[in-house]
Amino acid sequence: MQKFDVSEHALVPKHSKVSEKEKNEVLDKYKITLKELPRIFASDPSVIELGVKEDDIIKIVRQSQTAGESIFFRRVVRG
Asked: Is 45 helix (H, G, I), strand (E, B) or coil?
């Protein structure tokens, strides 16, 4: 049986793990703490292949007809 790669699906936006430096820049830019970010589970099919651990930050880039692209950040939690 062939494994399905969810990241190749047309409706799944691009997910990437941010570096520690970018993580600190995001928190400083938005003047928030890590716990204030929306959550994404480490077991989510779109981030499993990224090798994430708890409290990593995931950057999600979605294509938008009005804005061109929209960027979202999520904090990885167990699950």
From this structure: coil
